[in-house]
């Protein structure tokens, strides 16, 4: 696969996105520590981060660390509007924009030198446009590969711009801590640290087989490549959605939740996912559970069904099995976020009919009836009994930096 010899890939990442929108819209919050979300921190301004407040931290802990912080409720409509405006700037910059989340994207500016200038000039103009048109700070990293462009933006935060020239790639990358490598969370970092592996340079000195013995085959291959800045992925546009998912941040409250309370969260998430799949005319086969723990480490578990489905009951049954299998891990490490995704999507919405047919109510008919009532009277018109009186929580599509 072709990889450009020029540093022409931009990673544009809004700074503390939700908190920055709040500070933009309320001048009284500017320069003050701001926390978005009460039960769990969805975003923190850099003034709050200076006190140790971090995304996904429990609200009570965040307030202990920074008692003078202003806590504001999330305003998802405002964040969506701001994201749309920022992406207009991205698309005005280059036709090759790959959205990563609501607040970040890769942008390929290769071939635009004659009409738009150098990658650094383009990136500087993009930052100025986002500031002038949307009123938000944004950081841009520039490199030859997507991986290194993202690392560059992390190093340049907040509100910065950093170019990694091709001749300086490894000199820039190798002194960085291992956590800068994609996929290395707290747990993997601890495994590496116990063997004296602290920096990316330390990783680069190891063979692929040695890394595989330390962190597993797939992760070992990934770390071997990234520590040498081997990343052949191109910036792609118009990527078809490969999964439908939802997740909920629990904060430290997740540590004290009973099995019934966790199950209620599972039911709510699966109900949202299955409803969206049916609305989009999609079915899927693989159900994936995503967990985040107190140490900010993560884990995933998945199960592939023998047929594609969008049935709430079928997906829920699989989701419950995955949670039950992960129960010892949850008890040991504490749960702060739970999410599910259904993948291997069939865009035609094909679903296997099962035999034998009986006179009992077909789950598909139940789903169709529920969907019909909700379309006519609103999403809250019908709610599962187990969810009545419970806090529905805030679904978090992405937790920004």
Helix-strand makeup class: alpha+beta
Number of distinct beta strands: 12
- Radius of gyration equals 23 Å
**Which parts are unreliable, with pLDDT below 50 for 5 consecutive residues or more?**
397-401
Alpha carbon gap, first and last residue? 31 Å
Helix share, percent: 40-55%
Counted up, domains total 2
Gross CATH architecture of the largest domain:
2-Layer Sandwich
CATH class of the largest domain: Alpha Beta
In N-to-C order, the SSE pattern is EHEEHHEHEEHHEHEHHHHHEHEEHHEH
**Biggest sheet strand line-up:** 5-6-1-7-8
Helix count from the secondary structure assignment:
16
- Percentage beta strand: 15-25%
Q: Please outline the major beta sheet.
A: 5 strands, mixed
| Average residue-wise pLDDT | 85
The protein's oligomeric status is single chain
Would you identify the CATH H-level superfamily of the largest domain? Reverse transcriptase/Diguanylate cyclase domain
* CATH topology annotation of the largest domain: Alpha-Beta Plaits
